[in-house]
Write a structure and sequence with these properties.
By secondary structure, the protein is mainly beta. It contains two helices and ten strands. It has a single domain, classed as Metal Binding Protein, Guanine Nucleotide Exchange Factor, Chain A, CATH 2.170.150. The structure holds zinc ion (2 copies). The site of one zinc ion has 10 residues, from loops.
Length: 138
């Protein structure tokens, strides 16, 4: 069972089911939101249990294809969740998990929107111009 929290502890959660491997998303929206590209795992919505949510706030993700909303801690500013209604899983920022996570990184998404201030790593992982097949296939 995985657990995680924001920087200050005003948002804490537990995941009672399996976690997806980590996807790195280079889209502009993720980069603005996270301050750089995002690295997120995902869990079935019903498996995510909020243990502390006094800091949790949601905003609509303005340009999301999926009409998603983003969850963050209003006390410390940590970005935690990406919640697309109509999909069965909610994305969770991998850096908020307690370690060891047991996860590895599976792919890069939205490399067509990667920032001009860094190079994509030569890590041999699949790169998708937009979102990959991975989400649909698993
Ligand atoms: Zn916090
Ligand atoms: Zn993104």
């Amino acid at each position: 069972m995985a657990r995680g929290e924001c920087l200050c502890g005003a948002v804490r959660y537990r995941v009672d089911g399996p976690l997806r491997d980590v996807l790195i998303c280079h889209c502009r929206e993720c980069r603005r939101w996270h301050g750089h590209f995002s690295a997120c795992t995902a869990a079935r919505r019903e498996d995510l249990v909020l243990l502390e949510q006094r800091g949790l706030r949601w905003i609509d993700s303005p340009h999301s294809d999926a009409g998603a909303r983003r969850g963050f801690c209003s006390e410390c500013g940590s970005s935690l969740f990406w919640d697309p209604p109509g999909r069965e899983r909610i994305s969770i920022a991998a850096g908020t998990l307690d370690e060891p996570t047991g996860l590895s990184t599976a792919a890069h998404w939205y490399v067509s929107q990667a920032g001009d201030y860094y190079a994509l790593p030569a890590d041999g992982l699949p790169r998708h111009d937009r979102s990959g097949e991975y989400e649909r296939a698993s």
